[in-house]
Amino acid sequence: MLEFTYKAHCDLLGKFKIDTEYDIVTVRQTIRQYAKDMGMGIVDQTRITTAVSELFRNMYNYAGGGEVLIERGEVENHHALIVTCTDQGPGIEDIELAMTDGYTSGQGMGYGLPGAKRLVDRFEIQSKLKEGTTVRMMKWK
Amino acid sequence: MKEILNIKNTKERIDRIEDILASVASGDMDARINSEIEDDFSGIEAAIDLLINDLTDELRQRENMQKELENKLSKIQDQQKTILQQQEDLLELSSPVSKVWDNILILPVIGTLDSQRTQVMMENLLQKIVETGCTISILDITGVPTVDTQVANHLLKTVTAARLLGAECIISGISPAIAQTIVHLGIDLSAIRTKATLQDAMIFAMKQNKRADEVRALGNLALPNEKTD
Ligand SMILES: Nc1ncnc2c1ncn2[C@@H]1O[C@H](COP(=O)(O)OP(=O)(O)OP(=O)(O)O)[C@@H](O)[C@H]1O
Ligand SMILES: [Mg+2]
């Protein structure tokens, strides 16, 4: 099990599977709605939605899909929307490299991971070869 | 104490059993021993026939089931095809390219740009550019709620491909929230000409048109001179 440093007191909002491009779109929309319900403005809604879109696409493209956990909690005195993406894909060999602007192992732009990190308030990634990857992001209200 | 068995034609009958079993094994399910002799051995022959009957029944059932499954599968595949077809039709509908003005194409993009849709959209646009010879196309993404790296990548590719065909592509309708998000993602869209609204893009395109007309007019003036030279 992957352990994260940001342990939050959270309420579970939803758990979804990402198996198809269609899932990417619908779950992304769901997250936008949660952000809106929490009172986030249009810019923050767009940021978190875009950030999760990057993670979903990575799961879909590189790991054949994965799972999303959406939570709401109090972290470091902030109301936080917390999204955790877990896949059982091949894992990332060099996380530092994967987090580098412009690095892609495929045909992408290589801005998904580093870009997502810049769009949220907390970003953590853990990965183990042949076991999978977990990314947790938090966006303050 | 030994019991004497009463068996006639042992050799031929065992040969026959072997033959029948071989026929059954090779798929002839009608083969039976059907022995007419009644003796201590005919019980075994009858039992083998019964076994073959059971086997035949089971095989038939399996065949039927398989046929049923195949039917169902092909029905599902048909349905899937219909759905895919409908989806494709929708795709076509949702990326209508139209020539709105002399030399200007507009492609309003509405909804989500998954890779399949972007592909269709790009093909439609490029084809229209070739068909009409328009040199300016406007891609309006006011109706696109999320621009992530993949969408941005597709947009860049579309613009580059259009440019290769001799058409300039203007992207309009990037909302302030999306603009900020693109900047944070780190994507450089500076190679693309963007306008805030479709209206701005139209005005720009018409100015370009006018300029092109003027250049052409100059060219027409210059042409006779050239000839007299
Ligand atoms: N969930 C994952 N499983 C395995 N490898 C991954 C995963 N996510 C990312 N990677 C690897 O990290 C690299 C960088 O990912 P990133 O999202 O930054 O760029 P990209 O997906 O290649 O392109 P872009 O996201 O800009 O379209 C990927 O090319 C891939 O090799
Ligand atoms: Mg990516």
User: Which molecules are bound besides the chains?
Assistant: adenosine-5'-triphosphate, magnesium ion
Largest sheet of chain A, order of strands side by side?
Answer: 1-2-3-5-4
- Per the CATH scheme, the topology name of chain A is Heat Shock Protein 90
Report the structural category of chain A: alpha+beta
Tell me what portion of residues of chain A adopts beta-strand conformation: 25-35%
Work out the count of structural domains of chain A: 1
**Sequence of strands across the biggest β-sheet of chain B:** 1-2-3-4-5
Question: What is the rounded Rg of chain A?
Answer: 14 Å
Name of the CATH architecture of the largest domain in chain B: 2-Layer Sandwich
Unreliable stretches of chain B, pLDDT < 50, 5 or more residues? none
Oligomer: heterodimer
Q: What's the pLDDT, averaged over the residues of chain B?
A: 86
Share of residues in helices of chain A: 25-40%
Low-confidence stretches of chain A: none
CATH class of the largest domain in chain B: Alpha Beta
Tell me about this structure.
- The complex is a heterodimer of chains A (141) and B (229).
- Chain A has 141 residues and is of the alpha+beta class.
- Chain A contains 4 helices and 5 strands; from the N terminus they run E-H-H-E-E-H-H-E-E.
- The N and C termini of chain A lie far apart (28 Å).
- Chain A has a 5-stranded antiparallel sheet with strand order 1-2-3-5-4, with helices on one face.
- Helices cover 35% and strands 33% of the residues of chain A.
- Chain A has one domain: Histidine kinase-like ATPase, C-terminal domain (Heat Shock Protein 90), CATH 3.30.565.
- Chain B is an alpha/beta fold and 229 residues long.
- Chain B has 2 domains: 10-62; 98-221, Transcription Regulator spoIIAA.
- Chain B has helices spanning 10-25, 42-94, 115-132, 149-164, 176-185, 198-228, and strands at 98-101, 104-110, 136-143, 168-172, 193-195.
- Chain B has a 5-stranded mixed sheet, with helices on both faces.
- The longest helix of chain B is centred in the N-terminal third of the chain and has 53 residues, at 42-94.
- The termini of chain B are far apart.
- Chain A binds chain B through residues 21-22, 24-25, 28-29, 32, 42-43, 45-47, 49-50, 53-54, 57, 101, 108-109, 111-112, 114-116, 118-119, and chain B through 112, 114-116, 145-150, 152-153, 175-178, 180-181, 184-187.
